[in-house]
């Protein structure tokens, strides 16, 4: 028994002695041995590989686990990863900041209310359709002197392009919106309010160029509803929408025809083709009568069938296109739409409204119906007025419109009341001109298309051209 207990004591003593590996490796911090530290580092590497490199093959992860671990190696790798993550986060933040700095383009509302100056933040407005002159004037395209002259007038062109962009956006909304059943007052106020908003109407700096025409059927021009007019647009109507926009007195005059019954399609096609012919023929040193002859030939080549009867589309011979001067819608030159007439030539730098009217009637209009359009005479002499009310009204006209055309509804907006007698007095004195509606034979139908062009030194620009017409 004594020998057995001695052997047991020796075995216990041997088992309590540290192994060679334990004698050579001192304990780590908190009493942990390097073996336990290594296992912790392995766990850390597993977490990293699962979070940051989940797409690595499983074999690579196993190799990483079996690889020998050196003291301090894992800490360095974690620091490097932290630095890379920080750098990546910084780059991402920088990209986000750059994206935030990039301004989104302002979009137009429905109905249009955003000024075009807000949409085009750089205040550079789009050109219209650029057309080269005919062969004898092709040299202008590359002539450096003419190009330099054109660059000098860029601000003027930019102003009138702003007015053209307003016209395009307003009319495109109007074409989408106008429907049978709407009153004529509702239609014109929609167009005029849109124009005022988009051009940022500000007296003589920018605003409406002239009253919105909405002439129906046999009435070809110069009709806009006065207050109290209850006329309603019908499905069978042919409606001419003619409105203007000005910036700095430079007026865009453009018109189109709206129909809802396809029976009138050929009438509209003939007039539109004639207008485009006039634009194509226009140019520096071109005689006005030659343009009229080309327009007539094209328009009379069209026929329209209405209720089983065929009509030739006739140009309305006593309606013309015209030159446009600053703050003066009708300049000194007329562009006929029939052959013969004025031998005057177009000149460099001039603005023209090329407009054509087609009719299924006589092709000749006369004044009829209640007058709505007026304009102060451009060069009217001083005339003494005896009626005090007429003097007050003239002061309002000079302050609000100058020589730009106006209508009775515009006088209503200024707060003027009971002005009919005073307005008649100004007309009789020769200070104000009146422009009553112009009509063809009752029962006929008339159509109109119009664009504003400028004869620049190097080329011709159709300022009011758009995707619609």
TrEMBL record:
What segments bear the compositional bias annotation Polar residues? 16-37
A GO BP entry is: proteolysis
Alphabetized, the UniProt keywords read:
Aminopeptidase, Cytoplasm, Hydrolase, Metal-binding, Protease
**What spans are recorded as compositionally biased (Basic and acidic residues)?**
1-13, 55-71
Q: Which residues form the Peptidase M24 domain?
A: 160-363
Name the family the entry cites: Belongs to the peptidase M24A family. Methionine aminopeptidase eukaryotic type 2 subfamily.
- The record's principal subcellular location, in a coarse class, is cytoplasm
Q: Which GO terms describe its cellular component?
A: cytoplasm
What are the binding positions for a divalent metal cation 2 in this chain?
253, 322, 355, 450
This chain's protein is named Methionine aminopeptidase 2
| Role description | Cotranslationally removes the N-terminal methionine from nascent proteins. The N-terminal methionine is often cleaved when the second residue in the primary sequence is small and uncharged (Met-Ala-, Cys, Gly, Pro, Ser, Thr, or Val).
Gene name in the database record: MAP2
Catalyzed reactions: Release of N-terminal amino acids, preferentially methionine, from peptides and arylamides
Give the protein's cofactors: Mn(2+); Co(2+); Zn(2+); Fe(2+)
Q: Where is the composition biased (Basic residues)?
A: 93-106
Q: What is its EC number?
A: 3.4.11.18
Q: Where is the composition biased (Acidic residues)?
A: 72-85
Molecular function in Gene Ontology: initiator methionyl aminopeptidase activity; metal ion binding; metalloaminopeptidase activity
Intracellular or extracellular location(s): Cytoplasm
Native species: Lunasporangiospora selenospora
């Amino acid at each position: 028994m004594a020998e057995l207990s001695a052997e047991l004591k020796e075995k216990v003593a041997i088992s309590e002695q540290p192994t060679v590996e334990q004698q050579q490796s001192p304990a780590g911090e908190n009493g942990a041995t390097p073996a336990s530290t290594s296992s912790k580092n392995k766990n850390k590497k597993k977490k990293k590989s699962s979070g940051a490199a989940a797409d690595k093959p499983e074999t690579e992860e196993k190799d990483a686990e079996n690889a020998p671990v050196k003291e301090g190696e894992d800490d360095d790798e974690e620091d490097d990863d932290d630095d890379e993550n920080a750098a990546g986060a910084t780059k991402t933040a920088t990209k986000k900041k750059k994206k935030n700095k990039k301004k989104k383009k302002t979009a137009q509302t429905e109905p249009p209310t955003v000024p075009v100056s807000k949409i085009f933040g750089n205040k550079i407005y789009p050109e219209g359709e650029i057309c080269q002159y005919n062969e004898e004037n092709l040299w202008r395209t590359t002539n450096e002197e003419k190009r330099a002259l054109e660059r000098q007038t860029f601000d003027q062109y930019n102003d009138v392009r702003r007015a053209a962009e307003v016209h395009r956006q307003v009319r495109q909304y109007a074409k989408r919106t106008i429907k049978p059943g709407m009153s004529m007052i509702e239609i014109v106020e929609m167009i005029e309010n849109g124009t005022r908003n988009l051009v940022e109407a500000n007296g003589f700096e920018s605003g409406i160029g002239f009253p919105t025409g909405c002439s129906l059927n046999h009435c070809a021009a110069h009709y806009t509803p006065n207050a109290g007019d209850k006329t309603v647009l019908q499905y069978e109507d042919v409606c001419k929408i003619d409105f203007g926009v000005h910036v700095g007195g430079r007026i865009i005059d453009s018109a189109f025809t709206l129909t809802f019954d396809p029976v009138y399609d050929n009438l509209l096609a003939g007039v539109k083709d004639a207008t485009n012919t006039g634009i194509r023929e226009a140019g520096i040193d071109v005689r006005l009568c030659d343009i009229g002859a080309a327009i007539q030939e094209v328009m009379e080549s069209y026929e329209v069938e209405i209720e089983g009867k065929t009509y030739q589309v006739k140009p309305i011979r006593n309606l013309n296109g015209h030159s446009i001067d600053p703050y003066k819608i009708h300049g000194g030159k007329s562009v006929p739409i029939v052959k013969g007439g004025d031998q005057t030539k177009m000149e460099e730098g001039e603005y023209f409204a090329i407009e054509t009217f087609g009719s299924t009637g006589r092709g000749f209009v006369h004044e009829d119906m209640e007058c709505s359009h007026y304009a102060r005479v451009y060069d009217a002499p001083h005339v003494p007025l005896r009626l005090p009310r007429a003097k007050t009204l003239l002061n309002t006209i000079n302050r609000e419109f100058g020589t730009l055309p106006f209508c009775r509804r515009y006088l209503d907006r200024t707060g003027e009341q009971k002005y009919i007698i005073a307005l008649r007095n100004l007309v009789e004195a020769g200070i104000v001109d009146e422009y009553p509606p112009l009509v063809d034979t009752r029962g006929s139908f008339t159509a109109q298309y119009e664009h504003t062009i400028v004869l620049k030194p190097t080329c011709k620009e159709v300022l009011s051209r758009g995707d619609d017409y």
